[in-house]
Design a protein that fits this description.
The structure holds 2 protein chains of 2 kinds. Chain A folds into 2 domains: 2-111 and 236-314, FAD/NAD(P)-binding domain (3-Layer(bba) Sandwich); 128-232, FAD/NAD(P)-binding domain. Chain A is built from 8 helices and 19 strands. Chain A has helices at 13-24, 57-70, 132-135, 151-161, 180-188, 246-249, 285-307, 318-324; strands at residues 2-9, 29-33, 45-46, 55-56, 74-77, 80-86, 89-94, 97-106, 110-112, 128-129, 143-147, 166-170, 192-195, 198-204, 211-216, 222-226, 229-232, 236-238, 271-273. In chain A, strand 1 (2-9), helix 1 and strand 2 form a beta-alpha-beta unit. Chain B is 35% helix and 26% strand. The chains are: A alpha/beta, B alpha/beta.
Chain lengths: 325, 107
Amino acid sequence: MDKYDVIIIGGACAGMSAALYTSRRALKTLVVTTTIGGQLALTTEVENYPGILSVTGPELARKLKEQAEKSGAMIKIGQALDVIKAEDGYVIKTSIGDFEAKAVILAFGLKQRQIGVPGEKELTGRGVAYCATCDAPFFKNKKVGVVGGGNSAFDAAEYLSRIASEVHLFVRSDKYRAEQTLVNAVQQAKNIVIHNYTDIKEFIGSNKLEKVMLVNNQSNEKSELALDGVFIEIGWESQTKKIGGVADLVKLDERGYVVVDNQSRTSTPGIYAAGDVTDTPFKQAVISAGEGAKAAMSAAKYLQQLTGVGGSEELRPDWVNAKRK
Amino acid sequence: MEIKFTDANFDAEVKNYTDGPVLVDFFAPWCGPCQMMAPIIEELANEVAGTGIKVGKLNVDEEQAKAQDYGVMSIPTIIIFKNGQAQETLVGVQDKDSLKQKLESLK
């Protein structure tokens, strides 16, 4: 089994930033991740990352990866399956093999929420979609639906109204969480119909999506609507309970977020967490990057006390080391 | 090197190819998840070079006919062909090793 000082689960802002910091401390670092960039890679323009005027999400994600690799981190694409306490640290079981580390940093962020109704999984990629900017062009002059009541749903509806012939927006209540300017744009678009108090109960189609079963959650009245595509934009959710062992090893809050202290420590020594996976109330690229660095430095400190790896001397700020060279 | 599939070369490169499996990544340059897939496809193509396995990409922004024929409605979509027949369709970002395993099992 390959052994590392630190294994980081997740390869977006928090994970790559943590990898940069641990590998610069000469700690043998592995990043296991299903994506490069996570939510960031789905963002079109990023204009609020300090020091960078404007960059596309995928471009920033690629730079984070390059920088982590350049500093010595190993990055592997795979799904973490289990985190298991071992005698000398932790074993991470993944879809691409098992790895061992003395310290672990959880940085796997959030996953796009699914509705969880029949037909959704089967018809994903066959009419059911989760990325409007990616898949909208397939629905040129077609009839589409959008599910959700927040910014991403209203944004998707507005964007799709310029490509599709007809857009149906399904909102669970009559309260919209989207910004007023977006709500106005959607309400003014001639080809968008808003269905309040409406849930999708089933996606129906043999080889591709043909129609949806709708239910009015006030009257319980059911109806069917023929649609070529439906974009699901109902936000993001924690996946801490989907990776085995995480929920047993570290304390989670009621929403499934990892509880951390101000040094990115979880309730278990040797396990750290950073970014959207944690209970931080602010989900921002720059915050995740900062937390990744913090988690890395805490992990380095832990390893130094444990094994002396990462320098036998007390950890010093970078500028102190630089001056000595 | 990964192959650039087009509507024009699709029959020759994919449909009528019988020396091994062919992986086609339907993508568009603007799509974030497709950009995540790009380095994975490139590495995979290099790793299977010379084995009879073909790996390449088809830009659905430039050409839509084949994407439509195979019902591609989400990108990235990866379809693995063997003897011209679609064997497996995968939607979304995939990891390199499981793609490689699938290709090798179809050899």
